[in-house]
Amino acid sequence: xxxxxxxxxxxxxxxxxxxxxxxxxxxxxxxxxxxxxxxxxxxxxxxxxxxxxxxxxxxxxxxxxxxxxxxxxxxxxxxxxxxxxxxxxxxxxxxxxxxxxxxxxxxxxxxxxxxxxxxxxxxxxxxxxxxxxxxxxxxxxxxxxxxxxxxxxxxxxxxxxxxxxxxxxxxxxxxxxxxxxxxxxxxxxxxxxxxxxxxxxxxxxxxxxxxxxxxxxxxxxxxxxxxxxxxxxxxxxxxxxxxxxxxxxxxxxxxxxxxxxxxxxxxxxxxxxxxxxxxxxxxxxxxxxxxxxxxxxxxxxxxxxxxxxxxxxxxxxxxxxxxxxxxxxxxxxxxxxxxxxxxxxxxxxxxxxxxxxxxxxxxxxxxxxxxxxxxxxxxxxxxxxxxxxxxxxxxxxxxxxxxxxxxxxxxxxxxxxxxxxxxxxxxxxxxxxxxxxxxxxxxxxxxxxxxxxxxxxxxxxxxxxxxxxxxxxxxxxxxxxxxxxxxxxxxxxxxxxxxxxxxxxxxxxxxxxxxxxxxxxxxxxxxxxxxxxxxxxxxxxxxxxxxxxxxxxxxxxxxxxxxxxxxxxxxxxxxxxxxxxxxxxxxxxxxxxxxxxxxxxxxxxxxxxxxxxxxxxxxxxxxxxxxxxxxxxxxxxxxxxxxxxxxxxxxxxxxxxxxxxxxxxxxxxxxxxxxx
Length: 676
Known about the structure:
With 676 residues, this protein is α/β, with parallel strands linked by helices. The chain folds into two domains: 412 residues, Methylmalonyl-CoA mutase (TIM Barrel), CATH 3.20.20; 150 residues, 3-Layer(aba) Sandwich (Rossmann fold). The protein is built from 26 helices and 15 strands. Helix 25 links the parallel strand 14 and strand 15. Helix 7 packs across helix 9, helix 9 crosses helix 14 and helix 18 runs parallel beside helix 20. The protein is globular and about 75 Å long. 51% of the residues are buried.
């Protein structure tokens, strides 16, 4: 028997002590606070080291579950938290002073942080509230500019939104020093079509707008402003081109250091550090051959972990089946294990930065920095990020349109989608209805009951007084955090707090970016044929074909709707697109007013079985049941069949990536509906 030692089992000694791994999270929350709490505790037991809370759209947009706007949206893409009692349930048996919690919340971030702080105080009643606050660590996303550009969960106008952000930052720097009060989010910019240059430029311009607002508010002394810069964190995206993504992250770190040093005079290198968490790209996940998403996710994770000098501080990965629907706990576990294998089995954390000295990497980083600075200069010349929202939105829609065109033309290969489409049957998706999790259909009913019971036991006079103080401070310019904490302690609801500020600040509708977007540059044979079909059908019907693109409900993911609207315009349709967050009644009213030939609905939040029938019923009541309705979104096959049975003319899901082909299908739907 050989006595030679097994060299494979005896790794070389690392060049320095092994680095600590990043915080490992899974983005989770669904149905009810109790169900989400059970999921969190299970994930923590599996080795997850931080929490990332997904709130439902009702909570994110400042409504209560009993609001008419909440129809079909309660608990579908996250957990509903309408009041302090539900926040208590969400974190039951999870010690918040020991936890690092990320909350994906924006317009109502101040309210969620206030309830989180109050729950932490209740968990530690032997301590003074100020001492509890000093122990809390985590992040509130709180980036409204990217909501205007891509995600859509904004509520208030720009000036008021920036004021809320500045108030939160000033409060946390003074009272919750370990809290990151804002995550500047380039993640959603990439999902909306941003190139690496645009992602760098628009995120950094947003950070400048926020920091300038805090500085100009006078709430933080010049001596403490360095702490403000040090608490700014970023939330980025990593696509499958992992070399380019690695260079993008190195460019981010160098540009941020430059901005902190030169614009804000930050001397301490620790305060200039680019601190970021990451959720890797979901835009590139495919419904076709979804098992391929696993290797995509791994490559994307490498883009934010390989380079030590630009390594993420926290990572959360999507699940392989997110293009199909809501991941199950097992799917989330798989994504967590991907992180753990990389961190604990590989030697990644044992070496200094492996890219230092690479002329290839250095050249690409320099190129990205140069192009990002040029784009930042353009945005700053327009008045900064707030003044350039219209410009940035149009640029993102145009960039996304160019990407879609490249995929359709086969210039950009997506394995299993536009190349290598032949596949063996997948055991993972043998039963598609079991391959995803369905949100509890009783969640809306339970949430409404919770609000009713909560209001029945509180002191209404105390709530009214607290909300009056919120309104008073909103009008006076006083920092709103203390009044918000008082409202949370008194028992106000999410909808009441946001409603009070709606009355003071008003609401806002962001630009769609469609009118200024550049679509397909050259038609090609397929689009030319569709244009001819559109023209011929229009002649036969005696007028230009009119397509209404509508987004019912609270879903703010508008990328798909925008791309359909741009391609329909390129195909010769007259397009009516009024943006996001419309009620079924508003969509029906627009269809009647514009006398449209077809209604296209885009829903990605899972509320299609509630909202689509409402639009169908509304059209029938208006005498327009002969107008065909098509639907696009993340829709399970079984739901798609039910929608067709209810009268929907066609259902499109992410596997239907050919927009021009979809346009041809819309023409045929219109022809059939009119007996042509």
